[in-house]
Design a protein that fits this description.
Elements: E1 5-7, E2 17-22, E3 27-32, H1 36-44, H2 47-53, E4 60-63, E5 73-79, H3 93-112, E6 115-117, E7 125-128, E8 131-134, E9 140-142, H4 152-169, H5 176-179, H6 186-192, H7 201-216, H8 227-242, H9 256-260, H10 264-278, E10 285-289, H11 295-301, E11 306-311, H12 314-327, E12 332-336, H13 356-359, E13 362-367, H14 371-377, H15 382-390, E14 393-400, H16 406-412, H17 424-432, E15 435-442, E16 449-455
Parallel strand pairs: 10-11, 10-13, 11-12, 13-14
Antiparallel strand pairs: 1-2, 2-3, 3-5, 4-5, 6-9, 7-8, 14-16, 15-16
């Protein structure tokens, strides 16, 4: 095993292969000898080419000069690299819905080629170039005539359960998957759903019936399931999922740039300021914290910069995801992140799924109209904000909104003002501890300031 390669912490459950990376964070996949026949079928059947050509399965190259584990080695694959890895509990409703439909489409096409998916989890999927794509090449196995879909229940617990719960609650509940990464137990889902959900044949069959069936039959004998019934099962699940929805907008920040800004002149000049600052730096990727509806994410994306648009408001992120799909914007990845309580590490030894902070490695961080919410709304000290932001990457564009600003005064209306440190002087002194100041510009007809910082060299 080469010393500069490391096996990915989450890649240990599948005996047929694993993912590893080099010291440049390039991702590789080793296929073990146990997967040889299935991989050969995947390629010779034409299934791989079909899925890859349709951008449903990540493309890869077979390479021969890198071998991680010689004892079990069959092949090493170099897949197309995903710029940023996100997890299902950070996704909006429509992204998980699209991921579920993609899984079912792949399952159906696999059956057409004599194969099926041996597992069905949203962790097999990533957002890439604006759409969902399947990334687990070793999930395909030969279909044996009459065998059931062994991953059916897993699909229901990891995809269908959070979607159905969100549908009836009319709110995004994908975050439940952070507590149940292997799937939300159907017994719990059944109890949480309203009684009227039993009137939906699909929900009754795939959630309520399955839950009670397992409780009464802890050990089931194998049974024969003709292929035609597998096709029917997939179609039934697809029709059910297509009919699930949540509200497009919810009370919160979805109309921020339509109603809550000071004036159109403010927004227009702020755009000019941001575009001017971007000419001073050379970056390939960025993180937009508090992205809202993605207005400034789109400005940055137009400069061929890959950007992760993060916001705590699930409705904003869902609307942005749908807009990007409609307009074929491929370099914005919307995710749901509350920066005051970001995704923690979870799974085995708290290392199987990395925290958002650990994954946040960008050339540029954007934080516009955000810091007053953190300092005054959440009582987070400037020093801690500066320290955390400095861990995200090389450059920072951040907007400071002074305490006398109308939006800050709204925050202070119903609370005691304990934010004596919230001043321009303290802001600058705390951030200059971690950054060098490159530029500082004011926004027309306001006292708001936009700063461009560069991380200090150690």
């Amino acid at each position: 095993m080469p010393s500069n390669f490391i096996k990915h912490y989450s890649s240990f459950r599948d005996p047929d292969g694993f993912v590893f990376s080099d010291d440049q964070s390039i991702i590789y996949r080793q296929l073990n000898q146990s997967y040889q026949n299935n991989y050969s079928l995947l390629k010779t059947s034409g299934l791989y080419d079909l899925l890859a050509d349709k951008s449903m399965l990540i493309k890869h190259q077979e390479i021969t000069d890198i071998i991680f584990d010689e004892k079990n080695y069959y092949k090493t694959l170099l897949p197309e690299q995903i710029p940023f890895i996100s997890y299902p509990y950070e996704w909006c409703f429509d992204q998980l819905k699209d991921a579920a439909l993609l899984t079912l489409d792949i399952m159906k096409m696999s059956l057409d080629h004599g194969m099926l998916l041996k597992d069905a989890t949203p962790f097999n999927i990533q957002l890439y170039k604006g759409k969902c794509i399947f990334i687990d090449t070793s999930s395909f196995e030969k279909y044996t005539d009459g065998s059931p879909w062994v991953a059916y229940r897993q699909f229901c617990e990891t995809f269908l359960a959070p979607l159905v719960l969100s549908h009836y609650a009319k709110n995004n509940l994908n975050s439940f998957l952070s507590n149940f990464p292997n799937g939300i137990p159907l017994a719990i889902v059944s109890k949480l759903l309203p009684f009227r959900s039993r009137l939906n044949l699909g929900v009754s069959l795939h959630i309520h019936f399955q839950s009670s069936y397992k409780n009464k039959n802890s050990s089931r004998n194998k049974y024969v399931m003709p292929k035609r019934r597998l096709y029917a099962l997939i179609d039934h699940l697809k029709n059910l999922i297509k009919g699930l929805s949540i509200k497009n907008t919810e009370p919160g920040w979805t109309d921020y740039y339509d109603q809550d800004i000071l004036s159109s002149e403010y927004l227009d000049h702020k755009k000019i300021v941001i575009e001017n600052l971007l000419t001073k730096i050379d970056v390939k990727n960025a993180l937009d914290l508090g992205a809202n509806n993605g207005y400034f994410s789109e400005i940055i994306a137009k400069r061929n910069i890959d950007i992760v648009a993060a916001d705590f408001d699930a409705a904003c992120i869902n609307n942005l995801y749908k807009k990007n799909k409609k307009e074929d914007i491929q370099n914005i990845s919307p995710i749901i992140i509350d920066i005051t309580n970001p995704t923690p590490p979870i799974g085995w030894a708290n290392q199987e799924r990395a925290s958002f902070i650990k994954r946040a490695n960008f050339d540029l961080t954007i934080a516009l109209a955000l810091i007053h919410h953190l300092c005054i709304g959440k009582n987070i000290p400037l020093e801690k904000i500066a320290q955390t932001f400095s861990s995200f990457g090389k450059y920072l564009i951040i907007e400071f909104i002074p305490k006398n600003d109308p939006k800050v005064q709204i925050l202070l209306q119903h609370r005691t003002d304990n934010s004596s440190e919230y001043t321009i002087e303290n802001f600058e002194s705390n951030f200059i501890t971690y950054y060098d100041l490159i530029s500082k510009e004011s926004i027309a007809n306001t006292e708001r300031l936009v700063y461009l910082f560069k991380i200090k060299q150690s």
